[in-house]
Structure formats: structure tokens, C-alpha cells
Specification:
Layout: H1 13-17, H2 24-37, H3 54-61, E1 69-82, E2 88-99, E3 109-121, E4 125-127, E5 131-140, E6 145-155, E7 167-178, E8 183-190, E9 193-197, E10 206-218, E11 221-225, E12 229-232, E13 238-243, E14 245-252, E15 255-269, E16 273-286
Antiparallel strand pairs: 1-2, 1-16, 2-3, 3-4, 3-5, 5-6, 6-7, 7-8, 7-9, 8-10, 10-11, 10-12, 11-14, 12-13, 13-15, 14-15, 15-16
Length: about 290
């Protein structure tokens, strides 16, 4: 594993509640489930020289920030909320882009771009969300332990006030990971702080902690947990979810694909937040992206 993504938002109105359009994404969810449960085919194994092993692909697919290029589609449905009536849904598109040493800087970089394409909140408010970028400079702390530091940026691109925070944000980011044999364990942290934007909107300063654990079952199958914890320094509010999911890495033709399903429950919350929900994810993996260039 060469890195360490975000999923849920700060503990503010848009941050604690949102999750993608209730109609279009539900069709997407059905398609993902159909593919997932019919994916009893070919595990992701490549016979080319220096190609990553299936074990490596599983670790990369489940690393929040990865050392291989990926295009990730994710849909999170929250059927019920605390303190407010209604449901929520978020459909997002993300891309992990590793930059080899000396490509831009004299050390490897791992970047993550997240586009919240459709955020639906209770009350049937739907819109585009705030774009997020994280970039980590990787320091090899050992043969199995990796550590990286960098920054995170948030752009006020939301199409409605409810689906974004209206603030330009920047802050530190860090990641650490340990990958012994069948395991991947680590922590990804980001703390964006607002420095400009709509003066009528509240200032933002929140810590996002994402511990991640993956265990490989064999045949491309894995179980995983990646709770998205939020600690809002401005309001003192927090969201502490508990989740557990399963998925598989396999091939469709020559394309490496990862799919997972991951239910979650909020065991602690402040303000409007989902009681529970389920996340569906699909990733296209490109392990030899830089090898072709």
C-alpha cells in the first residue's frame, strides 16, 4: 500500500447530513449489486512481468489514497436521520492519482480528488457539493510501514447553500499504513480550515479521521471497515460511525475492478446525522498507468 480518502463531511448542516439523488443513484445501486453478486468470475491476477499481485491490488483498492491510479464511484444511502425527518444520499466520483518520485517533486506523491456529484439532503434538496483535494508526500518508514504528510483543500463549488459550506478551506493531512500479508491497517487524517468565502457562512475547522482495516479472504474477496469520524473544533460536535463491509477485486476482460458494500451505524452524533446507512462502491484500477508513459 502506498497511501492512504474522505467520505463524510464536517459536523455542520450540510456536512453531517448529506448523502446522492434518490432516483438515479438507486438504479446505480441495483446495478452495482447485480455486478457484485454475479462476479464469481476471474480473480484479478496478471501474468505480465512486474504486474501487481492480487493481494497488492486488494490493498490498493481499499487504501483511501492509493499508489495506483483509480476511478472510484461511490453511493451512500441514509434512509433515516437523527433529529430531522427525511432521507439522504450522496453519489460521488473520485480519482486517485499517484505521482512518481521526481515527476513533480523529489518524492512520491499520492493525490485524491473527490467530486460530490449529487448530494441529497432531507427535504429533497439536491445539488453538487464542495470539491475536495488531498495530496500526500510519502516517506517510507520501513519495509511494511508507510507514512506520509501533505495538505488538503476544499473548494466552495456547491450548487446550493445546503449542499456545501461556502468556504475556501486548506489544512494539513497525514496518513500511515501497515500492510502485513493479508492485512491492511492504517489511518488517514485531514483538517481543512476556512480562510475565505461567504462572510455570512460559519467558519470551518474540522478534523476528519478515517481508520481503515482490510482483511483478505482469498479468491479476491475481502472484508473491510473504514468509518468516517468527524470532530468539529468550532462547534464541539462530532460524528462517530461504526461500519463493516465486504467486497471483491476481479477482472472484467482485461480491466481490474473492485466492488464493495459497507453498511454503517452512527453510534455517536451531534446534530442532524444519519442513524444508519449503506455505501456501495465500484473502482476501476489502473496499476500500470505510469508504465505506459
Amino acid at each position: 500500500m502506498r497511501g492512504v480518502r474522505g467520505r463524510r463531511r464536517p459536523a455542520q448542516a450540510s456536512a453531517l447530513s448529506g448523502r446522492a439523488n434518490r432516483r438515479g443513484p438507486l438504479g446505480t445501486l441495483g446495478a452495482l449489486l447485480l455486478i457484485f453478486f454475479s462476479a464469481a468470475g476471474v480473480p484479478a491476477q496478471d501474468d505480465r512481468p512486474n504486474a501487481p499481485t492480487q493481494s497488492d491490488l486488494i490493498k490498493q483498492a481499499n487504501a483511501p489514497i492509493s499508489s495506483i491510479m483509480q476511478i472510484r464511484l461511490q453511493d451512500t444511502l441514509a434512509p433515516e436521520f437523527w433529529d430531522v425527518a427525511g432521507r439522504g444520499n450522496t453519489f460521488s466520483l473520485a480519482m486517485t492519482m499517484p505521482l512518481p518520485e521526481y515527476r513533480l517533486l523529489p518524492f512520491p506523491q499520492l493525490s485524491l480528488l473527490t467530486l460530490p456529484v449529487a448530494v441529497t439532503l432531507p427535504g429533497d434538496v439536491t445539488g453538487f457539493g464542495d470539491v475536495r483535494i488531498a495530496d500526500i508526500a510519502v516517506l517510507d518508514a520501513g519495509h511494511r510501514v508507510l507514512f506520509g504528510v501533505g495538505g488538503t483543500l476544499v473548494f466552495p463549488t456547491a450548487s446550493t447553500a445546503a449542499t456545501g459550506q461556502g468556504k475556501w478551506q486548506a489544512g494539513p493531512a497525514a496518513a500511515v499504513a501497515f500492510a502485513p500479508e493479508r492485512w491492511l491497517l492504517g489511518l488517514f487524517a485531514q483538517n481543512p480550515i476556512s480562510y475565505a468565502g461567504d462572510s455570512k457562512r460559519a467558519d470551518v475547522n474540522a478534523l476528519f479521521l478515517q481508520p481503515f482495516v482490510t482483511y483478505q479472504l482469498g479468491g479476491g474477496w475481502f472484508v473491510r471497515s473504514q468509518p468516517q469520524m468527524v470532530f468539529n473544533w468550532k462547534t464541539g460536535k462530532q460524528v462517530l460511525p461504526l461500519d463493516l463491509g465486504a467486497g471483491r477485486v476481479f477482472k472484467i476482460g482485461r480491466q481490474d475492478v473492485s466492488l464493495f458494500v459497507e453498511p454503517f451505524w452512527n453510534i455517536s452524533h451531534d446534530g442532524p446525522a444519519p442513524r444508519y446507512g449503506i455505501t456501495f462502491g465500484a473502482s476501476l484500477l489502473y496499476p500500470d498507468f505510469w508504465g505506459r508513459r
